[in-house]
Specification:
With 277 residues, the chain is mostly helical. It is built from twelve helices and five strands. It has one domain: Chondroitin AC/alginate lyase (Glycosyltransferase), CATH 1.50.10.100. The strands form two sheets. It has a three-stranded mixed β-sheet, with helices on one face. Strands 1-2 form a two-stranded antiparallel ribbon. It comes from Nonomuraea fuscirosea.
């Protein structure tokens, strides 16, 4: 539920591998924010994060084996729960890093372990989109915990296996016939998971997939209004889409803490990991 609206994402250390942590935010960026938590705008964002229900140590995860998601959230069999739990895992991971309070790292691990123990598939017409929403935040949480928490995570490989087998294949398959934002959200998650898994092949495939929806981001496409999408949603989609399209270049670049005044922008909703400015 928190979001790091730092628009810089994974950055490879060299041609052979990725620099960790590197999904959405880097250590340099997080250290910059941590050093400025008593200053605005970071102070207000930090206060909001700490008050969020997603940052509570009593947050209850609700995992299930088959997350079944239909159009318009009908049915919603574990869909909202998975999205919220993934956001909570990432929120706790961020709270751990910024506070260095190990209780929040352990809570993030608890949530991720609960899901990795049971999740086997995503089904229903909205399964690809659901996989993107949840996979993005699970990969961000896993990346932060694995590479910054020294207290141990015995089931890290189990979650990595589920990201590789339950999430990544759906994401890389894409949905070129759906609204362009579907593939962009899915690609965002695929790139994050690939970085976490040190899977350069999947990372490159995810980057190539951006070329398909990019051609459909023109205004005429997004002005279309029908029973499935409103004009307001289209404006939101455009804002998110352009941010995701910037991801591969940001992956290859160096972080600049001075460019991160909204790193801790705190927003609600399943799409809060991709805020519109």
């Amino acid at each position: 539920m928190l979001v790091a609206a730092a628009l810089a994402v994974p950055q490879p250390a060299q041609a052979a591998g990725f620099k960790h942590p590197g999904v959405l935010v880097s250590r340099v960026q997080l250290d910059f924010v941590r050093a400025n938590l008593d200053k605005e705008p970071w102070k207000s964002a930090w206060d909001a994060l700490q008050k969020s229900s997603f940052a509570s140590l009593s947050y209850p995860a609700k995992p299930r084996a088959d997350v079944n998601c239909g159009g318009g959230s009908i049915p919603d069999n574990g869909c909202s729960d998975e999205r919220k739990d993934a956001m909570a895992a990432y929120t706790h991971a961020l709270r751990w890093y910024l506070s260095k309070d190990a209780r929040y790292a352990k809570k993030a691990i608890q949530i991720m372990d609960a899901w990795s123990a049971v999740i086997t598939k995503h089904t229903g017409s909205n399964a690809p989109l659901q996989t993107g929403w949840a996979g993005a935040n699970f990969s961000r949480a896993a990346e932060l915990i694995k590479h910054t928490y020294g207290g141990g995570w015995s089931q890290a490989d189990r979650l990595a296996s589920k990201l590789r087998t339950v999430y990544l294949p759906i994401l890389l398959a894409g949905r070129p016939n759906n609204n362009g934002n579907w593939e962009l959200i899915m690609t965002d998650a695929a790139i994050g998971i690939a970085v976490h898994l040190d899977d350069r092949t999947s990372f490159k495939q995810g980057g190539r997939d951006l070329a398909r929806p990019a051609a459909r981001l023109h205004l005429p496409h997004h002005r279309r209004v029908d029973s499935q999408s409103s004009a307001g949603q289209q404006v939101q989609h455009q804002g998110r889409d352009h941010r995701i399209l910037a991801r591969p270049d940001q992956v290859r670049g160096r972080p600049d803490p001075g460019d991160l005044p909204r790193l801790l922008a705190h927003r609600l909703g399943p799409r809060s990991h991709l805020p519109c400015g």
